[in-house]
Amino acid sequence: MGKMTYSALNQYKQNTVLTATPEELTLMLYDGAIKFMNIAKYSIKNNDKERAHKSLIRAQDIVVELNSTLNMDYEVSKNLETLYDFVIDKLIDANINKQGEPIDEALDILTELRDTWKEAMKDVRKKVYQNRQV
Which pLDDT score, from 0 to 100, does residue 8 have? Predict the structure, then answer.
């Protein structure tokens, strides 16, 4: 990839983040955590402990960020907090022992949360669009 293309790609990514809605940013965080967990799994399989460590730390940081943005006035936030804490524990366990199994457990939860979030976003968009048609 040429220097100009790489720079353009970074600018596009930066603009995407700057113009994203809070809902889209949450989706990006989920996608990022999932990506880093998959990189960590691959790295563990290939005995690249340093890359696995860095990827697990990045995934953990993202889940910590998701956890810190919860509005605890809602009951669902308390449930999410429990799930995020579980995911963080699994990522720490995977990092200490350099094992893929805890990552799989964390991935199952985060992927389901991401998919649920994505569906909720679609439903909201559909309702907003329908309301504009009236």
Answer: 66
HSE-CB at 5 with a 13 A cutoff on CA atoms is 2
Distance, in Å, from the CA atom of 60 to the CA atom of 91, rounded to the nearest integer, reads 7
Spatial CB neighbours of 16, under 8 Å, sequence gap ≥ 6: none
Q: Give this prediction's pTM.
A: 0.83
- How far from 39 is each of 12, 18, 33, 54, CA to CA, in Å? 23, 26, 10, 10
- Asked whether residue 13 carries a pLDDT value surpassing 70, the answer given is no
**Residue type (1 letter), 56:** L
- Which tokens go with 14? 């930066």
The pair of structure tokens assigned to 131 is 């309301």
If one counts every other C-beta atom within 10 angstroms of the C-beta of residue 97, the result is 11
Nearest partner of 91 among 118, 67, 119, judged by Cα:
67
